[in-house]
Amino acid sequence: MKRTLVVMLLVMFYFALGLVSGVFLSGYVKPEQLPAGNLFALPEERPSPGDHVKESQIKVYNNKVEIDLGKYQGSWARFAGSNSMDPVLDESANSIEIIPQTTDDIQVGDIIAFTYGSSLIVHRVLEIGYDELGWFARTGGDNSVVADPGKRRFAEVQYVTVLIAY
Fold first, then answer.
1. How far is CA 45 from the centre of its chain?
2. Distance in angstroms (rounded) separating the CA atoms of residues 124 and 80
3. Which of 43, 90, 112, 147 could join 140 via S-S bond, C-beta 3.0 to 4.6 A?
């Protein structure tokens, strides 16, 4: 009985050790992301993209997928290998984007394409607000520790990403 208990405790200990080390080694959770004293906690929740395409708008068949974008005009996009949106987007990804019709079509967490000078930048919406000039969004790359400079205005937003295919 005593030997069985010791074996069970050792198995549980090695399982927990493997779980913790697996989480750190996989890169999913970094030690600095964990709350102090809680090795099994997940990082804080971050805003996810809006639900622009409902389940009822998606039809999956054996050899194809159909997506009804409803009122939105859609387009296909590829990405440059800038690494700013790693690991979500890279040059091998393809996406479907919609053209937003109003500011209500853009939510915190969405990935948008916006004009910045003569470039088209694809970054995530970090904040939405209003100031003396009206609606704005603050953006940033997922792989960057600082937000993009300035504010994005609705007129600069060209697309909202609704599907990413790898």
1. 11
2. 15
3. 147
Q: For residues 69 and 53, what is the distance between their CA atoms, to the nearest angstrom?
A: 7
Residue 54 is classified by DSSP as -
Distance CA 112, CA 110 (A): 6
C-beta separation of 42 from 26 below 8 A: no
**How much is the pLDDT for 83?**
87
Over the stretch 68-87, which tens digit does the pLDDT of each residue have? 999 999 999 988 888 889 88
Distance (Å, rounded) from C-alpha 55 to C-alpha 9?
45
Q: What are phi and psi of 18, to 5 degrees?
A: -65, -40
Q: What pLDDT is stored for residue 95 in this prediction?
A: 93
Q: How far apart are CA 85 and CA 89, in angstroms?
A: 5
Domains of the chain, residue spans:
2-33, 55-165
**Helix (DSSP H) and strand (DSSP E) numbers for the chain:** 1, 8
Whether the full predicted model's pTM is greater than 0.85, yes or no, is no
- Assign domain 55-165 to its CATH superfamily: Umud Fragment, subunit A (2.10.109.10)
Q: Which tens digit of pLDDT belongs to each residue from 93-113? A: 899 999 999 999 999 999 999
